[in-house]
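FW: tagging you since you asked about this chain on Friday. Here's the raw sequence from the shared folder, copied in full. Didn't touch anything.
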Amino acid sequence: MPKEITPYKDSSLSKKEQVAQMFDTISGNYDSLNRVISFGIDVKWRKKVLKLVAETNPKTILDIATGTGDLAILMAQTKAEKIIGLDISAGMLEIGTKKIQEKNLAKTIEMVLGDSESMPFEDGYFDAITVAFGVRNFEHLEKGLSEILRVLKPGGIFVILETSVPDKTPYKQGYNFYTKNILPLIGKIFSKDDVAYGYLSESAAAFPYGEALNNILRKTGFISVKALPQTFGVATIYTASKK
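HL: got it, structure written out here
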């Protein structure tokens, strides 16, 4: 199991509560700051997730840790009848709701405040489930994945987009320098929360990736598990299904 890393090390709150607090604080400039930090490449990765999901022609989609709804909004291109974006941060959902209304997608996309480890949905309800840069924020990873498995339909697709660590030189050294030194500095300059982007880089470095995460998915009960490294391995797209 991955070592638990929390945003505020001197806080008495649970990791879940700290993550919600952190995202509420940085919600206002989260989208623009993400574009800067990833040099805009995260948009390309999300489009790859969209393609994988669209190929399955889903009618119902759940986007977990939806944040301000970027991926949920993108999923509207699948022509799904119902898309739900779930997040524990009310601040992020508020911004996401405004974006959805501006794009006239309120009839298709619903934003729900909730916990990914205890979701208010029926068993086998969703044809497709996505999580972009969210699984490393789960307080109990396997519990969260088990809950995702529960609400996914048999034969449905589960897609994770998450940061990972490049294995090859010089990408590994460059990634380590950027995440440890540059990313927290950018976050400190542009964010109201000094520690938020330090936590995001630290949690990314410590989170299992590649075959390690594949094995956790298999242990949880997922089948047809694959890892697809992106951009020299700085991110990975994982696909899985349910019996």
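FW: The mean pLDDT is 92.
HL: agreed, and The longest strand covers residues 152-163.
FW: great, closing this out.
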